[in-house]
């Protein structure tokens, strides 16, 4: 994948351009702020957690900017483990760049920009990236209300996760196998 990619946004005026790129330390504030805007405190990853994630796998973040502002992002480590476990969220050093599975830990779009297709662009891009890198597939967990959404990209629901219970929520594990 190229580091920077410019395209015209779907719902924006023809002059509006968006950019997708991976993350580095300078993105920490923007990423943490957007997470806090999108998730309740019990489920939101902290700034410290993002600092570690970006340090270990900033290249596994995809950030979408419009006019220089962060609109949406997706992130997750790579691992040989088949199932997503809560421990992975906090232990960024579990990232294995040579691993088989691309995990997706978070998908966030600024509330003012939701339902315009931004997360969809990033999810498809993450799938494409994982394919290009020779992974076996992509794994995520989500609440019941988003199962149909991820299914629309080809993710299959494997049922309620026994490995992930963070925030006291019931999470479904979903997977695309290439
Ligand atoms: C879930 C979330 C990431 C989706 O982001 P988004 O950028 O709004 O996603 P999209 O625009 O790709 O799709 C959202 C919906 O808008 C629809 N949509 C996409 N483009 C559209 C368009 N041009 N016009 C109208 N609707 C559109 C999609 O079909 C989807 O509809 P559905 O829910 O009926 O399937 C966002 O709502 C969010 O950040 N929520 C809070 C955090 C969260 O729960 N994250 C998921 C963790 S598992």
Task: Write a structural description.
With 178 residues, this protein is an alpha+beta fold. It has one domain: Aminopeptidase (3-Layer(aba) Sandwich). The chain has five helices and ten strands, in the order E-E-H-H-E-E-E-H-E-E-H-E-H-E-E. The protein has helices at 28-38, 47-57, 86-90, 118-132, 147-151; strands at residues 5-8, 17-21, 61-66, 69-75, 78-79, 101-104, 106-109, 137-142, 156-160, 172-177. The strands form two sheets. It has a five-stranded antiparallel β-sheet, sandwiched between helices. A five-stranded mixed β-sheet has the order 5-6-8-10-9. The longest helix is centred in the C-terminal third of the chain and has 15 residues, at 118-132. The radius of gyration is 15 Å and the shape is globular. Mean pLDDT is 90; it is low at 6-11. Coenzyme A binds next to strand 7, helix 4 and helix 5.
List keywords for this structure.
178 residues; alpha+beta; Aminopeptidase; 5 helices; globular; binds coenzyme A
| Helix/strand/pairing category | alpha+beta
CATH fold label: Aminopeptidase
Strand order of the largest sheet: 1-2-3-4-7
What share of residues are in beta strands? Answer: 25-35%
Estimated radius of gyration: 15 Å
Number of domains: 1
SSE run: EEHHEEEHEEHEHEE
């Amino acid at each position: 994948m190229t580091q920077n990619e410019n395209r015209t946004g779907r719902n924006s005026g023809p002059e509006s351009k968006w950019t997708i790129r991976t993350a580095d330390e300078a993105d920490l504030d923007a990423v943490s702020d957007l997470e806090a805007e999108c998730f309740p405190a019990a489920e939101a990853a902290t700034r410290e957690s993002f600092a570690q994630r970006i340090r270990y796998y900033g290249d596994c973040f995809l950030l979408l900017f419009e006019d220089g502002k962060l609109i949406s992002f997706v992130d997750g480590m790579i691992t040989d483990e088949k199932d997503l476990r809560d421990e992975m969220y906090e232990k960024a050093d579990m990232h294995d760049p040579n691993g088989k599975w691309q995990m997706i830990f978070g998908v966030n779009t600024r509330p003012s920009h939701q339902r315009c297709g931004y997360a969809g662009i990033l999810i498809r891009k993450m799938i494409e990236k994982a394919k290009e890198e020779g992974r076996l597939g992509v794994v995520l967990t989500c609440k019941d209300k988003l199962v149909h959404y991820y299914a629309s990209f080809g993710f299959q629901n494997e049922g309620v996760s026994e490995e992930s219970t963070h925030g006291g929520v019931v999470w479904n594990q979903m997977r695309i196998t290439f």
